[in-house]
Amino acid sequence: MRKKLWLVLTLTLSSGLVLGQSSDKPDPQPLPIISGCTAIQVASIPASAGRVTSRPKFSAQRISNATFLVLFPASEKFEYGEMLVKVLTPKGHLYQEVTVPLKRDSEAPAEVKRQVPGYPYPLEIRSAKLTTSTQGTNRVVSVPPLLVGGTQISRNGLFGVWKVEAWPENTNKPCSAEFEITP
Question: What is the tally of structural domains in the chain?
Answer without folding.
Answer: 1
